[in-house]
Amino acid sequence: MKQENVIEVEGLSKKFGDFKAVDAITFEVKRGEIFGFLGANGAGKTTAMKMLIGISTPTSGKASVADFDVYTHAEDIKKNIGYMSQKFALYDDLSVKENITFFGGIYGLSRAQIKDKTAQLIEELGLQEVANQLVGSLPLGWKQKISFSVALLHDPKIVFLDEPTGGVDPITRRQFWEMIYKTANNGTTIFVTTHYMDEAEYCDRVSIMVNGKIEALDTPERLKKQFSVTNMNDVFLKLARG
Amino acid sequence: MKTIGYIVQKEFRQIFRNKAMLPLIFILPIIQLVILSNAATFEVKNIKFSYIDNDRTPTSRALIDKFRASDYFNVIADFPSQSEASSAMLKGEVDVILEIPHYFDRDLLKEKHGNLSVTINAIDGAAAGVENVYINQIVQSFNKSIQVKLVQSSGLAAKPVNIITLPSFWYNETLNYKTFMVPGILVLLVTMITLFLSGMNIVREKEIGTLEQINVTPIRKSQFIIGKLFPFWVLGLGLLTIGLIIAKLLFDVPMVGSMVVMYFYTSIYILVVLGIGLFISNFTDTQQQAMFIAWFFMVIFILMSGLFTPIESMPKWAQYITDFNPIKYFVEVMRMVMLKGSSLTDILPQVIKTLLFAIVMNGLAVWSYKKTG
């Protein structure tokens, strides 16, 4: 299998006044990879991700996503990516079906495609009972799964997940990661940030950001070896404490 | 086009699903229209009139009867002395004190003139001015009847006929304040509702985080904005319709002009308001901020619209500012078309200015809406 890069980042920085939120980060993500983007709160993960999904302009550095430049072709990037924010971002006052219709519609899917996708998604997630209920009335775990599925509606090349499992129970988290694996197996690249170090173990490769810089980047196995510890939690603690 | 359709569909679903907002949008304006149109009147009625009759002759009683016969005055007290009358005014029990001096009747007959003393509570200066005019009118008409009597009794040659004015009020013959106020208040309601709803709508999506989700989609700025504003444009025209029906049924406001012209102008006007609302929402992060700024503009627009105070009596510099007030043009057009039957050619200056505002405001709004932070 050809290992081409779908994300290439070189010396990417974002400054807010004198504060360097993201300080010259360099990495690449390969097609079909599950890439874990780790870091403590305020390390700059979300800022870096916002530059990659085209809603924040970098201060300096180079970056391309799905072969499109983040400076000049942000709108083309948006056609090729899915995004699930850490803040639940479906409409609480619309039903599951209506949310799917709306997002499918603004991604330019046809009526027929929306119909098929809706049926498929409801089937896969077992949402038959609640398909016409308002999203706001559903438990958080369900919302997150629907949110993830909506981000995949237009078959993006890359999905960006910003702390997708924040605040959900371990069983739902497990189910969620099963969905991620399934998606990755279909060739979609997954770019995921998380605070849960057990989730970091599920990733093909992880990077760990500390104070705006990437301090480590490798497979979980090699990182554990490198820092002579037995789990990712300890890797993270060693790095984050400096 | 298809994308816009999806946004419009979603907005309408959300508007009609919101059980708390829907009554606010449609019922509150109706209540406001009914209450304000009755309350916001410049007519001074039910003036609390009192008198001190020191003369107590048929002539003085005839004068007081003139006031009694007037629709504007309620004769509520007859004070024996000045001090009691004054204390009643202090307590706010009376608005006007008419004092008829001793020998009023005798002076009138002998010296052909008499003096009356009138005291008016002038805390509300505008009302006091109107009351003064009313009193003068009554006294003058009394004067004339006395003169006639004097002429008759003395048998002298007739005095020159007094020149009197016969006012003829065009377009609102009966000087009905409701006819004047209802169109204006309707303007306010259409403006307020569309401004607040559009101003807060996008900020609300910012607050709940869905705007970020929209911004990572390949949707075009113009598609999003048109899709967002179209439902409120329809809503504004719907409000106008409800308001016009109430104006006709409840207040019997004459609608001389063409409704086509009315709707044509309003559809441009609402674009201006929506542009302002969107512009505000682009520069604010919370609904509270948006609300405050929207109110700031609303208050200035309302007070400088010529609705409550005539623009002609404002200082020159203020009059120039009113040229930038879209509400002013809407009030003008509404009154012109409804009461005067003005045609499209008559309101062309307003149409052009409003169209210009619409282009500028929506241009600014689209320009300031950034998908990238």
Task: Compile the SSE list and pairings.
The complex is a heterodimer of chains A (242) and B (373).
Chain A: E1 5-16, E2 19-30, E3 34-39, H1 45-52, E4 60-65, E5 68-69, H2 74-80, E6 81-84, H3 96-106, H4 111-125, H5 140-151, E7 158-162, H6 170-185, E8 189-194, H7 197-202, E9 205-210, E10 213-218, H8 220-226, H9 232-240
Parallel strand pairs in A: 3-8, 3-9, 6-7, 7-8
Antiparallel strand pairs in A: 1-2, 1-4, 4-5, 9-10
Helix pairs in contact in A: 3-4, 5-6
Chain B: H1 2-17, H2 21-39, E1 47-53, H3 58-69, E2 73-78, H4 82-90, E3 96-100, H5 104-110, E4 117-120, H6 125-154, H7 177-208, H8 210-215, H9 221-249, H10 259-282, H11 287-303, H12 316-322, H13 326-340, H14 348-368
Parallel strand pairs in B: 1-2, 1-3
Antiparallel strand pairs in B: 3-4
Helix pairs in contact in B: 1-9, 2-7, 2-9, 3-6, 7-9, 7-10, 7-11, 7-13, 9-10, 10-13, 10-14, 13-14
Explain this structure:
The complex is a heterodimer of chains A (242) and B (373). Chain A is α/β, with parallel strands linked by helices and 242 residues long. Chain A has one domain: Rossmann fold (3-Layer(aba) Sandwich), CATH 3.40.50.300. A 6-stranded mixed beta sheet of chain A has the order 6-7-8-3-9-10, sandwiched between helices. In chain A, a hairpin with a 2-residue loop joins strand 4 and strand 5. Chain A is globular. The termini of chain A are far apart. Chain B has a 4-stranded mixed beta sheet, sandwiched between helices. Helices cover 65% and strands 6% of the residues of chain B. Chain B has 14 helices and 4 strands. Chain B is mainly alpha-helical. The chains are: A alpha/beta (242), B mainly alpha (373). At the A-B interface, helix 2 and helix 3 of A face helix 1 and helix 8 of B.
